[in-house]
Amino acid sequence: MTEPAGEATSAAVHPLLTDRLIAWAHDRDIGERAAVAALIEEGDILARGDVRDLLVVENDAFVFCDWPRFEAQYRCVLVLDEGEDAFLTLVLATAFPRLVPLWKVEVLGERRLGIVLRALARLAGCATVAVGVRS
Question: pLDDT category, 78, cuts 50, 70, 90?
């Protein structure tokens, strides 16, 4: 089935947010690249409008993750379950290295734990980590 002409044109003019974030992260440090990759791979959290509104700054000319604003406000502004909070805590620690309690991994679940482990492998410089595998 083909896309209506308007939708195909819109996609060509307005690349997907994930593609734009990947392009932005390409020039950032390894921690930010790993954090963006983890958010994109996990998919569910970045799909939330409230998360995007707080984390992503975007217009026609640019897109970027405003990590400091997000970190300062996400626990007060967003309604998160324990697993979402743990995942975002570890993703932020990947973007901005800092101490985080490792007990947070207890509530991640197997899928998010795998994503965090791949992000940490990327942070360690392992370029051969499989990306985009969702089970």
Answer: very high
